[in-house]
Design brief:
By secondary structure, the protein is of the alpha+beta class. Among the domains are: 46 residues, no CATH class; 173 residues, no CATH class. Helices cover 33% and strands 20% of the residues. The protein is built from eleven helices and eleven strands. The chain has a six-stranded mixed beta sheet with strand order 6-5-4-7-10-11, sandwiched between helices. Strands 1-2-3 form a three-stranded antiparallel beta sheet, with no helix packed on it. Strand 2 and strand 3 form a beta hairpin. The longest helix has 18 residues. It is globular. It binds zinc ion.
């Protein structure tokens, strides 16, 4: 996928050329393209987040940037003299790109990935006990690159974990060697095992063995240094049976590094709905998910990471350079 080529929305080939240019009120000049194969004309903004918008692109970018650096919806609306409805509309348009970029990310092959799983909590609408709240957010982050594979919110139940781990199962298909490290929550391993496993027939009598796919490891960190009986506790457990050909070692250092923790802090700073002890919390699960999808896009493809000095998608090897704000806003949705 080359982001600079205008593919034809009809035949999806890049055999297009500029037909005419015209001047818009707020966006400068726009191009009408022509496809030589199907002989159709289309605008360069066809099926992109900004199609049909009249507000200047620079203004949309300024406002979405303010939002993505942690400004609440009300504060953004007041500071930038814009209606909340418009901001929500722009965010919804932008978040619509998530499936496209997810698809794009999943066509790549990876040699090795270490993925940390964690859950983050915020209140949604009313103060409810955490067990009833829809504000639980599962984060699956590739450690070296800080690429977020999953950022999904809902009630902390089986369904939430299943959704996240179905995404992980797709990542596993593209990866030779993958470790999943989690902090205490056992459902990751169990559900992953239900979703993807290999059946091993070794010729011995009895039922064939069920194992994790080759190259996949699950590690759960044990909390506390000692067991209830006072014995020193193992640092981690590997609760799920692994494929006999998987190399077993994950060094303690690897297990103890914790990047999601730092990520959580950044999330609380940059997404107003996650700020503690304020009333900037999200009003519904859907709107929380919208802000998370925008966060996912900006974090993975646009914002340079403080530690690695590149965007996570570049570090992971799926992009050569970061996507700028204008690039991401003029990207076409996958049909
Ligand atoms: Zn065409």
């Amino acid at each position: 996928m080359d982001f600079s080529v205008h593919y034809c929305p009809c035949c999806t080939y890049g055999d297009t050329h500029t037909h005419t240019r015209y001047l818009t009120k707020g966006h400068g000049s726009r191009t009408i393209l022509h496809c030589r194969r199907c002989d159709i004309y289309f605008s360069e903004t066809f099926a992109t987040p900004i199609s049909g918008l009249k507000t200047p692109l620079s203004r949309i970018i300024t406002i979405l940037k303010a939002r993505s650096e942690g400004m609440s919806l009300n504060a953004t609306a007041r500071t930038h003299n814009v209606s909340k409805k418009s901001v929500i509309d722009w965010e919804r348009r932008l978040s619509g790109l998530k499936p496209t970029l997810m698809l794009y990310s999943l066509v790549h092959q990876f040699i090795h990935q270490e993925i940390e799983g964690d859950e983050l909590y915020t209140k949604v609408n009313k103060n409810k006990p955490p067990s009833e709240s829809q504000g639980w957010t599962i984060v699956l982050m590739e450690r070296g690159s800080r690429f977020l594979w999953e950022l999904h919110c809902g009630r902390k139940d089986q369904q939430l974990f299943e959704k996240a781990l179905q995404c992980l199962a797709q990542v596993i298909e593209q990866t030779d060697n993958l470790s999943l490290l989690t902090d205490g929550e056992r459902r990751y391993g169990n559900i992953l095992f239900d979703i993807c496993h290999d059946i091993i027939r070794n010729g011995k009598p009895g039922r064939p063995l069920k194992r994790l796919p080759k190259g996949v490891r699950v590690r759960i960190k044990n909390k506390g240094a000692k067991t209830k009986k006072g014995r020193p506790r193992q640092k981690y457990q590997s609760p799920i049976p692994e494929h006999p050909d998987t190399a077993h070692e994950v060094s303690n250092e690897e297990i103890h590094a914790n990047h999601v923790e730092a990520f959580n802090a950044s999330m609380r700073r940059r997404n107003a709905t996650f700020r503690r002890k304020t009333n900037t919390y999200a009003k519904s699960r859907k709107s929380l998910q919208r802000t998370l999808d925008v966060f996912w896009l900006i974090h993975n493809f646009t914002r340079v990471h403080f530690t690695t000095k590149v965007v996570p998608a570049v570090k992971l090897g799926i992009l050569k350079t970061r996507l700028s704000w204008p690039q991401i806003l003029t990207m076409r949705y996958a049909v």
